[in-house]
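Feature request, filed as a ticket because there's no other form

It would be nice if the structure record came with a short human-readable summary line next to the tokens. Right now we just get the raw output. Example of a typical job, pasted below so the devs can see what we mean:
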Amino acid sequence: MASDVDPTTKNMKPLRTNVMSMTGYGAATIDLGEGKGRLQVTVRSVNHRNLDLRFRLATDIGALEMVMRKSIQERLRRGHVDVSLQRDRSVQTESVVRVDEGLAKQLGSALERLNDVSGVDAVIDPVTVARFPGVLTVESTHDTTLDEGHEEQLRAGLAQALDALVTMRAAEGSGIADELAMRVATIQSLGKQIEESGPQLVAAHRERLRERIAELTEQPLDEGRLEHEVALLADKADVAEELSRIQSHCDQFTAELANEPSASGKKLEFITQELLRELNTIGSKSPDTQIRALVIEGKSELERIREQLANVE
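Raw output as currently delivered:
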């Protein structure tokens, strides 16, 4: 049965951390000026092992994707990011309907020939011709093209949306960081408990050997032989190196949480894997059920850490 975790870890003071979550949302509206409408920019992100950018852009502004991609790569390191940039044409503008007369004449002639070839005497009306793409087009009397000046407006609007997204990611990351720091402190406490159990384990084994020998033989107890057997067990079950590495890994984990400008989720995942490796070694070396219970408790804490790290940038 695992012993209680050091109560000081339950009320520990949160560390100053720089953990960023990968979940966030940001939006901004860009006013393009008279007659050009507005651009609606939204940026959503969830967890992903790398930076995965997906764009949903209006057809007439698709060329701006590279501008947006570069800006986002400068701000974010990881996450699946969905970017939407849509043109809002709700602004009232004057429009004209234009007819492609050449195309309309060609279509009319082609339909008449189709009647002659097929032997079907169908009525060809203007509505039929108008349904073909390109015959009728609606154009604004204002210039709606986006020039270099609008590219700067886009950068500013995207920066505003990213600011909102990063703020949300930082707020969620702060809560994740507090939990990670608490769980790492718990693992450190468990390591100290395992270390303190070492001398007790040796003493208990010595006593068990003494009792067992007394049961099996009436010969005088060879204290030298007894101590030799105890020393062999103590050497085999020695986990001092593993405990030292656990403390070192925990210190590295805590330092990375406070790293500037922000902690690396990938590095924290690597440290967590190393902690698991040391706990597994301790569990395989120790014959003591109490120490094995502490190891199981530590591995449970590591599993919770890994779940949280799945959303750390």
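Something like this underneath would help us a lot:
Confidence is low (pLDDT under 50) at residues 1-16.
Residues 24-91+148-168 form a domain with the Ribosomal Protein S5; domain 2 fold (CATH 3.30.230).
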